[in-house]
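Pasting as-is:
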Amino acid sequence: MRTSLILIFLSLTYLGAKAQNIKNEDLIYDDKIHTVLFYRTGNQMNPPVIRLGTNDKLRLAFDDMSNKSYLFHYTIIHCDHNWNPTTNLQKNEYIDGFEEADITNYEFSLNAIPPYVHYEAIFPGPDMRIILSGNYILKVYVDNPSDENVIFTRRFFVIESLARFDVRIPYYPKKLEYTRMKQQLDVMIQTPDMFNDEPQLRTFLTIQQNGRWDNAKTGLKPTSVTSNTLNYDYQYGIVFNGGNQFRHFNIESYWYQSMYIRQIISDADGYVVILHTSYPRTGKQYETEPDINGHMLIQARKGQNTNTEGEYAWVEFRLKMPKIHGADVYILGQLNDWQLDGKSVMIYDNSLQMYRGSIYLKQGYYDYIYAVLPDGETRANVTPIEGDHWETGNDYTFYLYYRERVPEYDRLVGYMTMNSKTQN
């Protein structure tokens, strides 16, 4: 088992070294970088969203498994609603001050195997102020921001609260065959008079379920405009799979085996955590179980400094089920940045009749779910393994963009989050 984990790690190192096709997504390009956290200050569970013209700040933290410290830099890039760089804007039109900054706050780990360097930064600061709303990419790099030097990218949002959302999730959807399974979102948005200028052409609505981007609804247009209200009344509605509550496990401590952990192995090379074998939940009755909708909370046991004393482990996932042909099975959640990639794909073990996968994780509490990605597609489906229930408590985030005329760029003029179970 130790040999197989080492081989997996070496393959990821090779992939990380070659994969330098930089995308405007939440991606890590250097295999030495782990546990990237990016959130509005105050609570690790906050999304990376700040309000334009306020003192809101974002906190960035990450670990580098190198044996020495580096001077990392960062810059930001304004994007349109589809996450393409805004070519009509120069950086000095959305940044007041310096266009890049250094990450100078770092600490070496203490007694951790393997050792690492923990980095942190708070921004924006007085030397780099953001003066336009919209989608942004944070790009962290060494030396200069050319593709080969980028170590990771992260999305964040600067909002203007100029719209008010009215969203309902009816029990009976327009397509009755979706009853008790899918979640239909009925959306109306109250907007100021200024947004009545060509709203069908100049407004774009994005809806995100939990932290996922692969199944987000993007570029939605209002079906009608009445007074100051944008109505999204599609023939079959705006529909998401209900899915199921997320699975979870707790590795805040390696001293004891918490629920869902089968075994913890410790030796001179570090830790391996083997989770109890999972099984499909399709066809089973919905059960309410608290979750944090796919997110993670990086936190070591009491008495440890999580930043520098938190340790890493290879966490092994096992899913007992027949092999799905023509598709891959992925572990999905914030624990892998919601990415459907080689680090989260599971390998089928014919001898054990189960899927197996491993992810390198720091001490903390983690949510995850299993998703199926058919060959040739980019949108994964959780329902073949997890089931499909209207009662599931999913988080939905709504982003309303308005395309300004001069200069032409997408303002983020409306933002809201709600939970389907409470509809708040």
